Amino acid sequence: MAKSELGKLLGLAGDVRIDFIDSPALQNNPLGDPSVRPLAVYVPPKFDPKGSKRYPVIYILHGYTGDVAALVSARPWETNVVQWADRLIRERKMPPMLLAIVDGNNRLGGSQYVDSIHNGAYATYTVRDAIGHVDATYPTIPNEGGRAVAGKSTGGFGALYLSMTYPGVFCAFASHSGDSNFRGAYIPEFARTQRILEGHGRDPAAFVDAFEKKNKRSDDEMHAIMLLGQAAAYSPRAAEPFAFDLPFDLNTGEMRDDVFARWLAYDPAEMCLHKLMELSRLRLRYLDCGRRDEYALDIGARMFAERVRGMDLEVRHEEFDDDHRNVGYRYAVSLPALAEVLEFA
To answer: End-to-end alpha-carbon separation of the chain, Å?
Structure first.
């Protein structure tokens, strides 16, 4: 088949296909986000969709404010995840395989890849609709041993969460700077978000409306909408726009422990303590994070690794000298590690 224009633009030996899937799990969601989503699929050099060879798939989850377009875009002096996979395959550091980049964006900047009555069923969309499309369209190895999941930041959280929540779907995960230890990562954002919302009548809907109309947003505003996105995922109240509970009092800023307890139920550092069976069946548990991460997610990764090792399970945990941003080069480490445990046919 002729190479796509995107494949040529990225200088790939393989290629990238952009498919569109209509996800039943995302239909009629309260935020009005589209149910038709792009799905980018990287195919390796000499890929023959009608041949006898079958390929494992690594599912890639983007971070907060990301989407499929962002992960396949070309940027000077940087290598995106598709280009990393292509390079590693060309250099024989990884066998030929498929990558599938899932779109988990929504009006609030990200879905956290969980099912929410407020946002829509993004976990179901990922593990059922996206995987179902890939297995039906490409010559995959359509079982647990033929799939792994990886991501950075919110995508890293998604890799952890989905692996522990849907056993039997993936055989391995890689989490780069993934959200974990919510007490350390999220609580510092509560006060400044409460102050931002005060300027909009303490009304999240009014803030989002003003946010969307701006040409440029401040760092505080970006963190505020991220926290609203987390609330919509972790503590939804009803299937109505902006019907979610915040983990602090809108008037005083005081912590709402009952709401934050709902958040902690999604915290990988807490979840892992109750997921021995799910974690035991995985062939690789990989986490890394920069030691200067702005959200202290290096501590969360360390906590997760130590707690899982306390269950007598192996964890590959690495720390490196960097912060939270522009660490996509870590895929050069995780992709070959995942490939080592995947099944090939």
So the answer is: 22
Dihedral sign (CA 213, 217, 223, 226): positive
3-state SS, residue 210: helix
Q: Where in the chain is the domain with CATH 3.40.50.1820?
A: 5-180+268-341
Confidence at residue 2, expressed as pLDDT on a 0 to 100 scale: 81
d(CA 339, CA 344): 9
Q: Which CATH number fits domain 5-180+268-341: 3.40.50.1010, 3.40.50.1820, 3.40.50.2300, 3.30.450.20?
A: 3.40.50.1820
What pTM, to 2 d.p., does this model score? 0.97
User: By three-state DSSP, how is residue 335 classified?
Assistant: helix
Residue 251: CB atoms within 10 A of its CB come to 9
What tens digit of pLDDT does each residue of 141-188 get?
Answer: 999 999 999 999 999 999 999 999 999 999 999 999 999 999 999 999
Per-residue tokens: 141? 């190895």
Backbone angles phi, psi at 290, to 5 degrees: -70, 145
Distance separating alpha carbons of residues 66 and 273, to the nearest angstrom: 30
pLDDT band at 74, cuts 50/70/90?
A: confident
Per residue in 306-319, is it b (16+ CB within 10 Å) or e — as a string? ebbeeeeeebebee
| Interval 236-274: pLDDT, tens | 999 999 999 999 999 999 999 999 999 999 999 999 999
Q: Which residue has the tokens 């490409």?
A: 138
